[in-house]
Amino acid sequence: MxxxxxxxxxxxxxxxxxxxxxxxxxxxxxxxxxKAFRFAAKAHEGQQRRSxxxxxxxPFGVAKxxxxxxxxxxxxxxxxxxxxxxxxxxxxxxxxxxxxxxxAQLVEGVTKLTGISFQxxxxxxxxxxxxxxxxxxxxxxxILIKLADRLHNMRTAEYWGRQKQMQKARETLEVxxxxxxxxxxxxxKWELEDLAFERLHPRKYQEIKTMVAERRAExxxxxxxxxxxxxxxFEKVDIPAxxxxxxxxxxxxxxxxxxxxxxxxxxxxxxxxxVIVQRxxxxxxxxxxxxxxxxxxxxxxxxxxxxxxxxxxxxxRYRALHTTVIGPEGMPLEIQVRTKRMHxxxxxxxxxxxxxxxxxxxxxxxxxxAWVQQVMDWHTDETDPLEFMKTFRTDLFSDEVxxxxxxxxxxxLPSGSTPIDFAYAVHTDVGHRMVGSKVNGRIVPLHYxxxxxxxxxxxxxxxxxxxxxxWMKVAASSRARNxxxxxxxxxxxxxxxxxGRESLEQALKAQNLPYRKLAGSALxxxxxxxTGFKKAEDFYLALGSGKLPVSQIVNKVLQRxxxxxxxxxxxxxxxxxARETVASESFGITVKGVEDVxxxxxxxxxxxxxDGIVGYISLGKGITIHREDCPNVKALRRNPERFTEVDWDGxxxxxxxxxxxxxxWDRARLLEDVARTFAEHGTNIVSxxxxxxxxxxxNWYTAEVGDxxxxxxxxxxxxxxxxxxxxxxxxxx
Length: 733
Prior knowledge:
CATH class of the largest domain: Mainly Alpha
CATH superfamily of the largest domain: Hypothetical protein af1432
Radius of gyration: 33 Å
Mean pLDDT: 80
Oligomer: single chain
Strand content: 15-25%
Number of domains: 6
């Protein structure tokens, strides 16, 4: 799309925007901003808003808000272009060609999903939010542009129909204002809340506005008197500070009146004051506490109204000291104390990050980046859109509790958190091994709701038992619920995959087809690829979960068999010879009711720690350990009296031999990469072999592993090797 010169009637807008950006970026890229404006003006030419003004006024308004947030030129340019893909014939590729990948990525991040049919409006909404979350996890400027877009739309909401006003206002209060709060952008949050409140409850809005206006002069006089007194005291002790009144926003007044059942006169912080100390860094923090001490020496503090957000910042990194005192004339006076930097972060939140990272190539604030990633941890792997939406909203609205580890480290958790949430906040493995908890030295149930100031100790087992499904009902944080859900997904993944392999085996045998010949053949590999799966693991998971009909695969195999022959199955070497019979302790096996008994591992099924096992008393040979699913066990069940209970106790001093098959598309250095993977997992290869048929390399290995967990980790790593199609344990059938 050709970019044309800006028309004279729009030149004033371009100049105004460039002046706004140059106010905080001296060497701003004027040409980029002008070019983005020209592109947007051309794309939206002929379009009008409901108000009757040119459509370009909207992207210009959004860009102005981004400039007020002190965003960089790329973000301001993306704000100008944010609607061109969604509302015009321009494509994202055209934006990328004209402005580069970074700006195109920002534009794509704020563009709604179009051209996709959804089952419901709720699903479409959830998927659009998910897209936004994924984009802002990569680049937080996406959400800043989105918030600016919503803020400008709410400022001009009177031109929408009543139903749309209500819907957008409700969405603003439920999603966008809490999102601004989560990101610490209070200047945007407050305006969004007041604008939405005005649309949803116009009569209540006017009542509160009138009540606030009636007493404004009286409040201002009180604040001015207190400010004058405080300023004189600060000068005496050399604490340079700027003192100002702080307006209370209408929606927060309404919330306190409606949700907490308070009268208008009971809201203390209608009369509020802000103290911004002029020094920053450690000196500034000392000044904050010095100022607080001075305030409390002048006026009596109200009990329970002091909050130290400097020592214990909020999740959105908000820092300040809050106190309410009995001020002049015996009236409550709320005072906030913070440094200049804290004030900037309180007003602009995550946007303040760019103010401190203005110079090109400046070092990234790693702590901030880590926090952004934590905030973006909103079920990005959640497959159910409605569950995603529920978690998304819950996380936005949650307040915080501040609790401590036994060593005194502070952990900030969502309100309503339990010891389960604390355990997963410390480390995923701590959560998985958790068996109980102590709070302030006393054992408490896992459903105990943590309170600020609690000291929490997690009691763990040596071996990871894994979480209980009931924990999902108790956990309050999305992190804990995610980790619990992921654990169960992993645990059932192996079972589902095995179920898929068995269902295919039964279906092929029902057609009198040789499963063992087909299982590792190039023919089946081609069928799997034809159905859209690059990895055999994903294919068997789809079969096991019922998402892919087995009959469909069998039909495809039969069609191919009509035109080709199945390659002769490569002979897998026999299982390693059974090792000498040794004491049960060497294998880490306990035999119920007997100590120091001789055992040996069955060579037919080669069990490893973690497999379900049974013990069979072999005459003159001690106890033979079989896997529970070993085909030979079925035959041996004719003598049930010769079976005895056995179990792994986790203290094996020997390694265990298993056979592993690796099927891969043949390529140079394949064997080298596979062997390296074995070595990286500390697995010794005892023997190996293989053949290549129709470009499919079929290799097998006898390897020594520690337990089933090691084996699963090895198989996962092998499946991730380039060109590897499938890797699995060879077991008798």
